Amino acid sequence: MSARFTGKTVLVTGAGSGIGRAVAVAFAAEGASVVAAGRTALSLDETVALIEKEGGTAAAITADVTRSEDVRALVDRTVERFGSLDVAVNNAGVLRGGAPIADLSEEDWRSLLDINVTGVLFSLQAEIARMRDQPTGGAIINVASNLGAHLRIPGLAGYVASKAAVSALTRAAALDHIAEGVRINAVSSGPVATLMSLGPGETDADRADRMKRVSPLGRVSATSEIAAAVLYLASPDAASVVGSDLVVDGGAAA
Questions:
Q1: What percent of the chain has pLDDT above 70?
Q2: Are 131 and 181 in contact (CB under 8 A)?
Q3: Domain residue ranges in the chain
Q4: Residue 40 gets which letter from DSSP?
Q5: Which CATH superfamily is 9-190+224-242 part of?
Q6: Which of 108, 14, 105 is nearest to 61 (CA)?
Q7: Which of 5, 48, 59, 254 has the fewest CB neighbours in a 10 Å radius?
């Protein structure tokens, strides 16, 4: 295993499970000190335990990305603990509102915007404020979705709108802050081997059969594959990649 991130501090939101956990573990395996952030302490502690079991360095910090004061405190505590903020991965998000647009509830709509869009905005603001004052700047990766700017399907208009906003916000923020040394990109995943990609009442085997029919690749992506894309965008190998939205979805949006 390489050590591309030795001496770097990485903050990952939504790190208690799924893609966020895989990203946190992958950064730690390449030498980073990782802060696993989210709303549920127990799941964050499990992520930290996985990292420490393999000899990595990590800390768990609870925070709600829909509260700007929480995110500012999260960044402050990250820097207090490890001395810098070199990479941030804004992964916290929800999938709700599985209904045609005319039937989408106000509660689901507001939740999607609050967490998926405003949560990313607040995170960007706090992270950039720190990174642009560092001589080495920093890298930020937002986790969007192939559903949004790249692909639409019936019944998920609210989610699609929220993730399209993340893609647009990523590009705008990248242009605003690259001159200050903060490099911002996004990864847009398709169905991944997490609970979020399971349909109502669907088993893993059912999902596998469905993906053979609907995905050009014929399967869901592994969380490790999404993590690999995130680590590339955070690494020196992507030093000239600015404002990109890397789609990792098995060809679904091709």
A1: 100
A2: yes
A3: 9-190+224-242
A4: -
A5: NAD(P)-binding Rossmann-like Domain (3.40.50.720)
A6: 14
A7: 254
